[in-house]
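Sequence in, structure out.
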Amino acid sequence: MEVSIEVRNRRLIVGVPGPLFQTRIIAPRFVTFQYEVTPDMNRFFVNSPRPDSPLTLISDWTSHHQ
């Protein structure tokens, strides 16, 4: 979600929340976190399958980031 924030006359004005982008998040009630933000805060990784796409499992991916 995103929301506009503005300061007018030393008062905080908050806009109406809206979706930042569309996703197809799976199992929202069974998994705690469906997304992750990169450390530089420039990208989101979202647990969302592509339609008619095979599942690819990448294991031991953290060993390449040390």
